[in-house]
User: Fold Pyridoxamine 5'-phosphate oxidase-related, FMN-binding protein from Rhodococcus aetherivorans.
Amino acid sequence: MADLSGDVRALLGARNMAHVATLMPDGSPHVSPVWIAVEGDHLAIFSAQENRKVANLRRDGRVAVSVCDEHNPYRSVVVRGRVVEELEGDEAVAIMDRMSNRYIGSDFPMRSAIVSLIEPERVHLQDLPFRHPSDAGT
Assistant:
């Protein structure tokens, strides 16, 4: 298992959207924007039972996650790993609500979902020395 440094945990624990890549049955990639959290040493994402990403992860637990800092898109982390546990019920709802409160300030309106816990295998933090030019005066 790869270590999640303090900088990586900060980026994953902020209100940044993540993009999760899973594998379709034919091996092609499927990418979904998701909320993300760090639960212990694992990443957590959630989805409805009938969602394509749940089916993909149950068949092949390999996953890649990309997160960019919402305030500086040149600061990002890419994590490759594997789903090691799936949670449902009260435990899943508690994680969903923690994420939802961080992202939108209230509990998640749906009360049922699948939480996938991802064990990170490779972690790459990138902080490029670029900034968007000011839009002032354009």
Residues 6-125 form a domain with the Pnp Oxidase; Chain A fold (CATH 2.30.110.10). Residues 89-104 form the longest helix (16 residues). The longest strand covers residues 72-87. The chain is about 25% helix and 45% strand.
